[in-house]
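Handout, section B. The chain below has 313 residues.
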Amino acid sequence: MTERSFSPDRPLRLGTRGSPLAVAQAEETRERLAAAHGLPREAFEIVPIKTTGDRVQDRALSEIGGKGLFTKEIEEALTSGEIDLAVHSMKDMPVEQPEGLALTCYLPREDVRDAFISLEFAGLDDLPRGAVLGSSSLRRRAQALHRRPDLQVVEFRGNVQTRLRKLADGVAAATFLACAGLRRLGMDEHAARAIAPETMLPAVAQGAIGIEQRTDDAAVTALLGAIDHADTRQTMLAERAFLAGLDGSCRTPIGGLAELLPGDRLRLRGEIIRPDGSVRHATEREGPVCDAAAMGADAAAELRGRGGPGFFE
């Protein structure tokens, strides 16, 4: 099968963040690899790695560096050979990878929607005037303020369990969580109030898991080829080209979603919003799947022009 073999004695090492959700995603990757290659799950070892984004919880991501905060230490371990591949939430991934590394595999995408979470209220429009909304996402904050400029928005960092605990402690009246994360954690009951993309466009690549490897590791390339999901790859091409064209990071409120249509066609929706929610620009593209990346770049160019200099400041 490959020049190298993997076994419980010499396992393939999967690097991941140490949060319960990140480990669940690595477990899914391990199960898919084991099934695809007829290997025991012990032939794949999960290696949790603490990232800067996990260590620093008292400040907004936009204040300490953005998306790379959840990938830097993992990519350093991959480059050094400490791990053999890295499992990432794609919405955390910068649009460019370090030299010698590449995203070569995507798992089937989960539910892309955000869920409204509150112990008292059914939806964003039901919150009383001036209510406190907790979110660490600039996109979600801007989208909420665009609809409800009266709300008070507070920083709400931490993993899914931490944020639910903060909600129970009364830190905020409501928050948002990704349906994909809730489902992967077996917490579907919290995803009951899913928000349609037409109402709240998700983050670029939300719900997608990407696997990164060293470009010179042919054995890992062969292993991952068996579990790569072509449909998710096509949507990622469009969405990440859109993000790259906007120089997107955790410092910029951007929503984007690509969906495959019958007849090998793809629809891309994208939006940019001022951080205070005061102005929103949106656009849409539809075309053949083979033009996915070009559609993403073209949509980004349009919105960049409409926003003008300093739109995100």
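Note. The mean pLDDT is 91. Compare this with the example in section A.
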